[in-house]
Amino acid sequence: MSKDKLIESIEKMKVSELVELVEALKEKFNVQGSPVAMAAAPAASDDGDGDSGPSTVKVTLKAAGQQKIAVIKAVKSALGLGLKEAKELVDKAPVSVKEGISESEAEEIKSVLAEAGADVEIE
Q1: Which of 6, 20, 51, 71 could form a disulfide with 64 if both were Cys (CB 3.0 to 4.6 A apart)?
Q2: How many other β-carbons are positioned within 10 Å of the β-carbon of residue 82?
């Protein structure tokens, strides 16, 4: 399969399928986190209380944006919630969607939610 055909196939995938693909690739190639997440870590702690870097962070959904249904589906998929719970969480925005997680997990969740159209922040 050519690179262009692979990209074309990925573009057609649903958010939940992309999450599964990322997890499968991480497992297959024994990848613990992404370089993007490591580069973003200092910026996330700069506005804090002066720590050299938190070991855990939280993901905050600031707003659902124009694609609320897509964001609800992304929250459901990324957090393993039921549809009702995901909708209630999105309706409460701004709200913390997951706390006490690693920076790489937070980046992954942020990526999935942002791709669906949500305004997301890692704190």
Answers
A1: 71
A2: 9
pLDDT in tens, 70-114: 999 998 988 888 889 989 999 998 999 999 999 889 999 999 999
Q: What whole-number distance in Å separates Cα of residue 67 and Cα of residue 73?
A: 10
- Taking Cα atoms as reference points, which of 50, 28, 29, 21 lies closest to residue 108? 21
Burial of 1 by CB count in 10 Å (0-12 exposed, 13-18 middle, 19+ buried)? exposed
Q: In what order do the strands lie in the sheet with 95-101?
A: 95-101, 57-63, 119-122
Question: What is the pTM assigned to this prediction?
Answer: 0.56
Distance, CA of 55 to CA of 27 (rounded, Å): 22
Compute, in degrees rounded to 10, the torsion defined by CA atoms 23, 101, 108, 37: -110
How far apart CA 61 and CA 123 sit, in angstroms, is: 11
Q: Reply yes or no: is the peptide bond before residue 54 cis, omega within 30 of 0.
A: no
Neighbouring-strand partners of residue 101: 57
